[in-house]
From TrEMBL:
Pfam families reported in the protein's UniProt record: FMN_red
The name this protein goes by in its record: NAD(P)H-dependent oxidoreductase
Coiled coil: none
Organism: Ollibium composti
Recorded superkingdom: Bacteria
Residue ranges of every copy of the NADPH-dependent FMN reductase-like domain listed in the record: 5-158
Family matches, as InterPro entries: Flavoprotein-like_sf (IPR029039), FMN_Rdtase-like_dom (IPR005025), NAD(P)H-dep_reductase (IPR050712)
């Protein structure tokens, strides 16, 4: 029986019509075609306070961070589609990662959802540079969290004109780069799921 890897997909923006959300839609389809079981979530459903160690000390990890941590732990890989703010990671996404990185226990059991987990990165922007600076920063942060970030990326420039009416990329080269990313990530997720199952 072929292994069906589980991959979690989300965008780093909750803006209506976000280019990163539309990029995540394209990724979701490409991962499904690779044979992955895809879960799509929106960070709008996991609102979090700004990371503050006093808050953490007083109240522990917020429920929504724990829910996200459990979601990540329940999947074999994660794909994140990020926008770029001022050449870097948007605060919504960085804050989410920071909180989840603090989730180390769940009901007395060790929970390290990010360590060793394969991750794939997409970026997008309104301009020519396709959010590649944000992708570079995001890669560094996720590696710091011990995630196994795969090498291929898919970076989408000119978000306002990048998608057709059906939500697909207009540029065939972009579609190809998404397919390479999703193929590589699905393979990594398959290997991870076999390690977990072993
Ligand atoms: C605070 C802020 C900073 C931004 N900085 C950049 C930037 O550094 N590079 C860039 O290409 N676009 C930048 N933009 C424009 C975004 O690419 C654009 O708003 C995009 O639509 C945001 O991503 P989303 O569509 O996924 O929400 C910035 C937008 C905001 C709101």
């Amino acid at each position: 029986m072929p292994v069906i890897p589980k991959i979690l997909v989300f965008a780093g923006s909750i803006r209506t019509g976000a280019f990163s959300g539309r990029t995540a839609d394209v990724a979701q389809k490409a991962l499904a075609l690779e044979g992955a079981e895809v879960t799509r979530l929106s960070l709008a459903d996991y609102p979090l306070p700004i990371m503050d160690e006093d808050l953490e000390k007083e109240n522990g990890i917020p429920d929504n961070a724990m829910k996200l941590a459990r979601q990540i732990a329940a999947h074999d890989a994660v794909l994140i589609a990020s926008p770029e703010y001022n050449g870097s990671i948007p605060p919504l996404l960085k804050n989410t990662i920071d909180w989840v990185s603090r989730a180390r226990h769940d009901n007395g059991r060790v929970l390290r959802p990010l360590a060793g987990k394969p991750a794939g990165l997409c970026s997008s922007s309104a301009g020519h540079f396709a959010g590649i600076r944000a992708a570079n920063h995001l890669r560094a942060v996720l590696v710091r969290c011990q995630m196994e970030v795969v090498s291929p990326e898919c970076s989408v420039p000119e978000g306002a004109s990048a998608f057709d009416e059906a939500g697909n990329f207009r540029d065939g080269r972009l579609q190809k780069s998404m397919e390479v990313l999703c193929h590589t990530l699905t393979q990594a997720a398959r290997q991870a799921s076999m390690r977990i199952g072993a």
